[in-house]
Amino acid sequence: IASCDKAMPAMLMSIGRLKELSAIMVTGGVMEAFTLPPEYTEDDPGCAINQLLTLEQIGKFSAQYERHEIPGEQLTYYKQHACPSCGACSFMGTASTMQVMAEALGLMLPGTALLPATSPRLIQAAYEAGQQAVELARMGLRPRDIVTQNSLENAIMVHAAISGSTNALLHLPAIAHEFGLELDGACFDRLHRNARYLLDIRPAGKWPAQYFHYAGGVPRVMEQLRHVLHLDVRTVTGKTLGENLEQLRQGDYYLTSDRLCAEVGIRWQDVVHPFDQPIGTDGAIAVLKGNLAPHGAVIKHTACPPEMFRATLRARPFDCEEDAIHAVLTGQIQPGDGVIIRYEGPKGAGMPEMFYTSQ
Predict the structure, then answer these.
(1) Which phi-psi region, left, alpha or beta, contains residue 217 (left: φ > 0; alpha: ψ -120 to 50)?
(2) pLDDT per residue over 140-192, tens digit each?
(3) Backbone angles phi, psi at 337, to 5 degrees
(4) Rounded CA separation 41/58 (Å)
(5) What is the Rg, in whole angstroms, of the alpha carbon atoms belonging to the chain?
(6) What is the pTM of this model?
(7) Residues 326-335: tens digit of each pLDDT
(8) Which of helix, strand or coil describes residue 312?
(9) E strand spans, the chain
(10) How far apart are CA 271 and CA 255, in angstroms?
(11) In this structure, are residues 143 and 102 in contact, taking their beta carbons and an 8 Å threshold?
C-alpha cells in the first residue's frame, strides 16, 4: 500500500524481489482540488477551471510572494487550502504517474489507480484487492509472471499518453531491474516518438488529477491505445489485459464514468482525448544528447513552451538549489539566462525535489 512519489516505486521494487509470494498494489488515491474564492482567482474570474487550487501551484505563489507580487495573507490562504484532503497531489506529477504505472504494469485491479482519496469506491477497491490477493496465492500467480518486457512497454505507452512525470525514467528502470529486466532511456525515447499524447491533466493540461478517474482512468486510456498495446500480458486479475478491457466494456464501468463526468459538468473526451483526436503526436518526453549531457538528458516537452525548444542562453551554473533560488528571487537571473544546478541528482544529493526553482 502506497500513494506518493518515492513510496510508490519503492513498493513496486519490493514486489519485484518477491520470487515465491504473490502481490497486489493498492494506493491511497488522489486528493481533491479546492476552488478558490473570487478575490483570489488565479487568472480570469469567469473561467472556473482557473479557480482550482492544486498543490503544484503553491511553489509559484510562494515565488510571487517573495517578489512582493501578492500579499502574505493571500499566500497563507493558498497554503491552508492547497491540500483539502489526503491522497496524492492533484496533478500528473510523480505520485499520480507512478500510481498509473502500477496499474499499467498489471499490478493493480483495473480502474483503481488515482481514485479520489475520499471516495467510498476506494474502500471497496481495497477490500476487493484483499480478496484477490488470496486468489493470487491460490493460483500461484507471482509478480514475475505479470511484469515482463511487454508489460513494461505497455506502461511506457501509457506514460506517453498521460504526459507522465520525467521521474518515471528513474523509477521504471529501477523497478525493471528488481524484476530481472532491463529498461533504459533509449527505450522511452523510441516508444514516445510518434506516440499519442491524450490526457488533459495538470500541469501540462488544465484539469485536476481526480478528473482522470471520472473520465475512466487507466482503462479508458488503454482502450484508446488498445491497438498499440500488448494485450496478451497477464495481470493481477488472473486474466490478460485484453480480457480485462473486454470485461470492463461489457459491464457498467464506463456508464459509471459517464455519470461521474456529468456530475462535474464534463465529458470523458474533455479529459482523455480519443486516439484520433490527440493533444500531441510525439509522446510527452524526449531524451536529448549533446555536449552538456553526452549520456542523455530528459525533457517533458509537453510542459515546455515551443519557443523554448531552440534557444541560445547564457549559462548561469550553481552548485546547489538554495543558491539558484536566491539568485532568482533577488533578480540576478535575467531573460536569456540558463540556470544550471549541479550536484542535485541521484548520486549527488539523493535527487531532492527541484520544483520550487522553476516557479
Answers:
(1) left
(2) 999 999 999 999 999 999 999 999 999 999 999 999 999 999 999 999 999 99
(3) -90, 140
(4) 14
(5) 21
(6) 0.90
(7) 998 888 999 9
(8) coil
(9) 34-35, 52-53, 285-288, 297-300, 314-318, 337-341
(10) 16
(11) no
